[in-house]
Structure formats: C-alpha cells, structure tokens
Amino acid sequence: xxxxxxxxxxxxxxxxxxxxxxxxxxxxxxxxxxxxxxxxxxxxxxxxxxxxxxxxxxxxxxxxxxxxxxxxxxxxxxxxxxxxxxxxxxxxxxxxxxxxxxxxxxxxxxxxxxxxxxxxxxxxxxxxxxxxxxxxxxxxxxxxxxxxxxxxxxxxxxxxxxxxxxxxxxxxxxxxxxxxxxxxxxxxxxxxxxxxxxxxxxxxxxxxxxxxxxxxxxxxxxxxxxxxxxxxxxxxxxxxxxxxxxxxxxxxxxxxxxxxxxxxxxxxxxxxxxxxxxxxxxxxxxxxxxxxxxxxxxxxxxxxxxxxxxxx
Length: 312
Description:
The protein is about 5% helix and about 55% strand. By secondary structure, it is mainly beta. About 45% of the residues are buried.
C-alpha cells in the first residue's frame, strides 16, 4: 500500500454535491468522515451527510444564512461555523438544530472541540473559548486577543491552543491559563492552513509554502516548496503530510524525511494528485485514503488500499 501512495495508484470515487443556490455559491468548504459517513459543509449554506457505502445523501441540515465554513462532529452532535457569523449545534442522530451561538462579528472560520471545551476563530481577529455544559447550554468563557488579521485556523489539546492568521503569524497559547507563550514567525504572507499534533505544527500559506515547526522551541524545522498557489488545507500524521491548494492540486509529502535536514528537497514530495477542477478547500486522510472537498462542488475519495489496476 505504501507503494500505491508513492506512485499515485488509487481508485477515485466522486460525490457530486449538487449545491442548490447558484454557480457562485457552489463548493465544499469543510468535511469530516468516519467509516460510515462523510459530513460536509457547503457554500450553499447547508450541511449534507453522505453514506460512504452507496454515496447517498441521507440528510440535509438547513439553518445557516451563509456558507458553512467549518464543522466538527462526534457521536453526540455536529457543531458548525458560518460566514453568517453564527455557530450552530445539531443533533447527530436527528439533524435537529439545538443551539445558535452569536458572538463573533465576522465569518466563523474555524472551530475545534474536545469534551466540554469549544474553541472558535473568526475574521474579526479573535478566538473564543466556550464551555459546553449541554448542547443547548454553551457559555463563552474567554476571548484570546493578539492577532491583527483573520484567524483562519484554531486547534487545541490539553497543552496548547494553536492559531494561524492572515497576519502571517502562528500563536501558541497555554490551554489552561490562555496565556500566549510564543509567536511563530517565518511565512511572508498570510497563513491559510495549519495542523497541530504532538510536538509539531505544520502550516500552509498564501506564500505557496509549507513550514514544519517545533511547538516547544518555536523553531522552523523545514520549509517545503512545490505548490503553485495558496496552500488552503493541510493535515499530517507520523508518515506523511497531505496538502491542498488553490490550483486544485493535492500533494503528499514524506514527513519523516522532511524532519531530516540531510534529505534533499526534491525527494520530499512523493505524489501530486490532480483530479479537482477547483480550489481544494478541505481534506482529511488516514492510512488508506484521502477525502477532499473542493470549490468544484465535489468530494473525492482517493482509495490507496484497493486501487484499480491499469486497464480495468
């Protein structure tokens, strides 16, 4: 299977999302998947849930008045953020809207929740930390101020909240005290995408580059070049980094090789995938597959476990 990743040997499954407003409002802004389903947030203001076995759309959630820019779900509920400035909470089983949070004054660009904590970021340059007492009882606890541009991504764990902004900076905040402990500098244009796990942060920028950072020291460990436009989405695990850009390209990078300063730059990108015809806005992957959403109004499932042989 590793050879399939390196040689771009995959089976491609395409979901046409059929956004229902107009051409300008088509596109998949965000998604999350598990073994059974894909939950997608669309530019036509809806959330669509798809079954992976037959690609059917089982439910459409309506209520937002703007594009659904970010989402996360667990077994209890789906939380979504929108260009209408609201955050909405939906019952995972019934699709019923349970709560609407109104606080941010511009687009809600990203969100992340674990257990009883929800963190949201916005085009209003702020980060909000919320306490989830119940789906219909979510209370604002703290505002994190310091960015001077839209906060495009926010992620957190028990140690740190990490945020990326159009102001060209990444800020690292202590989760418990909410203190900003360091600012990561290096990108020369706004930061559009970020993933944080373990001891590393990986960021993508409108300067067309990717940077790998040590979260404790703030040092930039590697600069990755190869994208021809803004790097809109990025995810990594112990083996690889997967990134998507505004040209419609998805690139797969060798993460472990990138951490080795002896590795030549030309060896780091193992695969470039070109199937989308619009900007790649969000992706997720695991050992077997990539699932990506695009402004071309499609979700693509790239299956590296069971690829179609040439000629089939």
